[in-house]
Amino acid sequence: MNFGHLSKNRKALIVISSAFLAAGIFVSLYSPVIFQEGNPWPQIKGIAKLNFGDSNMVKLSGSDNKYMTNSKNCQEVIKSFMKDRDYEFTEQMGSGYFFRSPTGENAVAVHRYYSRYYSLWKISENSNTDRGAIFQYPEELLSQITDFDSCVAAGFSIMKSNPPQCATSDGRSFVQGN
Prior knowledge:
single chain, 178 residues, alpha+beta, TATA-Binding Protein, 2 domains, six-stranded antiparallel β-sheet, three-stranded antiparallel β-sheet
């Protein structure tokens, strides 16, 4: 197409229209990624803070326990972050990282990839009570338990029955071999 005979206003209109069309195509193709957490604005601000700030981990706005890190070395970043909060790493189970403080408080940091370059963390803390430490598995981990083997792998106890059964903390039980 020859743009030599078009006026400046028409050229600008074509360029702006092309830009809007390209942006619309981009959003329609990548909308599952862009809107995977609902409103993408907190994640966009978190990505900007990670790239242009001096922090390895940022708290996402509008949430009291969601954080974002770069995906590279994210496990070391969360361990260092929790150590600064006086928690020691105890173990990892799937996407859950378990921590304990010297006072007996427990914390779980659940990891999820936001994209190839960024990771989201949800940190749940539980305090001691009169009856001892009460620990609740995060729903993200409980939802991954779908059969006997995944129940045992998550650390739940096996009942002495025939056939053996495994029961989760939310009341579900799984029979070996089903």
